[in-house]
Prior knowledge:
mainly alpha
Amino acid sequence: xxxxxxxxxxxxxxxxLPNGFTLLNLFLGxxxxxSASRGNYSQASTLIVLGAVADxxxxxxxxxxxxxxxxxxxxxxxxDAISFGLAPALLMFFAVFNQHGWEWIFCFFxxxxxxxxxxxxxxxxxxxxxxxxxxxxxxxxxxTLATYYWFRESDLYQHPLLVDLxxxxxxxxxxxxxxxxxISNVRYAAVPTIGYRSLREIVGSLVVLGTLAGLxxxxxxxxxxxxxxxxxxxxxxxxxxxxxxxxxxYDVGEPPGxxxxxxxxxxxIHRRRRRRRHGRPGGPDASSHEEPRA
Length: 294
């Protein structure tokens, strides 16, 4: 029997390319902190947004070139803690908060939750195919804070219904809310799948194209409301699914708590189809069903 030939290893420049995008994200995050400390808040917001672009590219390049590694995943999380945890928090500190009081504690709390969220992500979801995230992703939370200054300089912000709101007080609660959502179990959708072969892919393509159009033509007006809508939608969807989980009946042999949520999820639909195909609630091997743990 002939020895199996190991697959060729990727070339070194290809291996270094994803980590190069990750380190670019780190550079932009540090530059954003420096810009915020010098009073260049618009530039700091732009740098954090560009860091998010670099963060999105490093994972896609790693998958396209099959050069992903454990080292790259850990490096990405460490950089994200700075670019989407510390940098947006310090931008809020320099641009909005009172620098001589105790409001810096909000910056600490936001950064702490971002670090915890990234550590939990590495344990639970890193390296797996994802249709959703458990907890608000740290880039989404960081971009929500970072783009507030863009929104404050837009024409929409000058509307009487918005400009008179107590934004300084509201931002404290927004930071606290984003912090708790990062370490929560609220489910947030991942980047939509782009394509045209199914309704889901078509809707995902429209969402991505609409987001890109908003970023290109109305970045200062569009981004902050869109980020707030994403945060609110994930929370509202989780509350709605939890309500259905308590009110809808569940199948015989299915543990309570899975009837409503599982019924509207893809996994629940496929599970019920398999049960109907085999003609019994428990599937092909109902006796092996594991009882829910307390």
